[in-house]
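Limitations

Structures in this collection are predictions, not experimental determinations, and the ligand pose is part of the prediction. Treat each record accordingly. The example that follows, with adenosine-5'-triphosphate as the small molecule, is included so readers can see exactly what is and is not provided: the inputs are given verbatim, and the output is the predicted complex.
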Amino acid sequence: MIISSAPNPNNCPPRLILSLKGLGRSFGEREALRDVNLEIHEGDRIALLGPNGAGKTTLLKIIAGTLAPDTGRISLNGLTPSQARAIPGFLGWLPERAPLNPDLTVREHLTLTVAFLGLAKKEATERIEFLTQALHLEEKLGRLAGQLSLGSRRQAALAIALLVPPQLLLLDEPTSSLDPEETHRLRETLASFPQTVAFLISSHVLEEVAKVTNEALILKDGSLVSQKPWSDFPMDPEEGYLKEVSSHAAL
Ligand code: ATP
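Predicted complex:
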């Protein structure tokens, strides 16, 4: 299933949501990102791919405002990442390590989030119920986040990220802690979002991420080496990705 781009009845160009110019970030001697330029418009559904250590998490952290770049400019609808994060419902964000408060239960995290998002009580209850079932969180609702396994913490964080359709959804390896049924429900949840919602989803599970995105962006050694629609891949996602990565081996 290839997800189509957002419908555009008025023939207006899709709104620019994210612009990165010359983005760079190093950790000591290690250049994790170098001169990354990227634009994301509403309705773009982008898979963020690349070998281990390519810079995917670093890029997502910078967009989400939890890490500052060393060089370059970043604009989210004209805002800085921290300004964008303060706007309820602008960013949905599943980090690699879920920053949950260890002394709050999963239910308390979800309730606080719907309050921040300003959801009406009925809608809030329905969304919490839906995501709790979809991600098999029923038995974890009453448990303190600090007592959850890493996988359960990520499931709770994923539920938080998906509570409302944001303008830009950033997911760092969302299926890494999900069983096949939960993965299926995640796919359904993403498909139920309005087509204007933009996705940037990092993953090593190519067949799965290709089902919920329409283009693939490949990072290698911190550089953006390829961005093209899945439909331009001559073969299946995995073979196409491997061919694309090996063609940039000399970098
Ligand atoms: P993976 O697919 O394994 O999750 P990735 O593509 O997400 O990898 P990053 O986690 O962004 O890659 O890391 C990019 C590079 O930056 C790696 O070499 C990593 O070791 C390094 N790096 C990332 N964060 C830090 C940090 N806090 N301190 C030192 N080095 C870091």
